Amino acid sequence: xxxxxxxxxxxxxxxxxxxxxxxxxxxxxxxxxxxxxxxxxxxxxxxxxxxxxxxxxxxxxxxxxxxxxxxxxxxxxxxxxxxxxxxxxxxxxxxxxxxxxxxxxxxxxxxxxxxxxxxxxxxxxxxxxxxxxxxxxxxxxxxxxxxxxxxxxxxxxxxxxxxxxxxxxxxxxxxxxxxxxx
Length: 182
What we know:
Layout: E1 3-4, E2 8-12, H1 18-25, H2 28-31, H3 44-52, E3 71-76, E4 81-89, E5 94-101, H4 110-125, E6 130-133, H5 140-148, E7 152-153, E8 163-166, H6 167-173, H7 178-181
Parallel strand pairs: 5-6
Antiparallel strand pairs: 1-2, 2-3, 3-4, 4-5, 6-8, 7-8
């Protein structure tokens, strides 16, 4: 099952996505906000090790829901890969997410659409009460996307850059069509 938007699709990651992901992770412009200004220098063997511990590697069912897996691909409707989405759930019904787009797709409203789709899916199909993200302090573009999608700063002593979006926050923002907030 795929989650479809007006311009993008979110789907489970497959082995065929390795070359795109490897290029994404090795791109310093994408990874600098995670502390890798020269990229991560991911090799083919690193990709194989990563895949061996990724839960969806154990499933060959192509119908597996995007949000039944912790790692998803973001792609244009035509199948062109544009980024990745990772998420985890904790015992308190909170989801933590991380979204990255390839540099060629920055500034086009695609991150906003991807985040809107993610929030819709998580709140509609799970017991998630809030979604938490921690953008890098210097990543102003990420904070703009978060604000557009209903997130607000929620810093803690241990996580000064923490932002969150609750079901209520999103329900208010979700009334605005994606095309209007992109």
